[in-house]
Amino acid sequence: MDPHTMANAAQSLSLAHLVANASGVVQGILIILLIASVASWTIIFQKLAIFTGARKALERFEKRFWSGGEMSQIYQHVSGNSQLETGAGGIFCAGYEEFQRQRNKIRPSDALDAARRAMRVAQMREVGRLENNLALLASVSSVSPFIGLLGTVWGIMTAFMNIGIAQQATLATVAPPVAEALIATAAGLFAAIPATLAYNRFIHQLDKLDGQYEVFMDEFTNILHRQVPETTP
């Protein structure tokens, strides 16, 4: 093969050339995977900021909560503070407000139960905020390889059809559709692998934060329980 022919063959197998001249089905699959990849990376960066903020907010709140002082003073400091009134801070405010609202209206034990329910609702809202869009990330991680596999199968089918039409298996006949198939496979993995790693990481962080919220709720409930005899009429 002369150098000119080799240069033309190399150009025809370049990534840009293969994508530009791929079949409509493969191009459609690559566009879908590109959109999925962009969406997953957008969610990943958003969640990195959200979970980092949630961890820092928890650290700041716990430092303030366990530094001592009256509950009313802590509530005044936390309430309305955007850096503290999220996560555990929001759970604390919900429980404290409900306890103060009910303590003189119902039995102390019932006021504790009401405060606990209010904290549970605040916890569920915070977990829901952290969980937002994680399902989409999971979908990208699980579906993208199969979408890429569809492109792989289509490319291989095209290669066999080209062989049947040409009645011979030459590099020019087989290489382009096979390369398209491999590109579709790689695109599916490129979209799925980061989404899978990020999803698992975020789920681990979510479980850890949720556990810390549970621990704080138990600790704060015990603190309120110790105050019940003092607040009972």
UniProtKB/TrEMBL annotation:
Membrane topology field: Multi-pass membrane protein
Record field: transmembrane: 25-45, 134-161, 181-199
GO biological process terms, semicolon-separated: bacteriocin transport; cell division; protein import
Domain named MotA/TolQ/ExbB proton channel: residues: 105-214
Any one Pfam family match given in the protein's UniProt record, by short name: MotA_ExbB
Main location: membrane
Organism domain of life: Bacteria
Keywords: Cell cycle, Cell division, Cell inner membrane, Cell membrane, Membrane, Transmembrane, Transmembrane helix
InterPro entries: ExbB/TolQ_transport, MotA_ExbB_proton_chnl, Tol-Pal_TolQ
Subcellular localization(s) per the UniProt record: Cell inner membrane; Cell membrane
NCBIfam families: tolQ (TIGR02796)
Summary of subunit composition and partner proteins: The Tol-Pal system is composed of five core proteins: the inner membrane proteins TolA, TolQ and TolR, the periplasmic protein TolB and the outer membrane protein Pal. They form a network linking the inner and outer membranes and the peptidoglycan layer.
Recorded family membership: Belongs to the ExbB/TolQ family.
Annotated protein name in UniProt: Tol-Pal system protein TolQ
Species whose genome carries this gene: Acidithiobacillus ferrianus
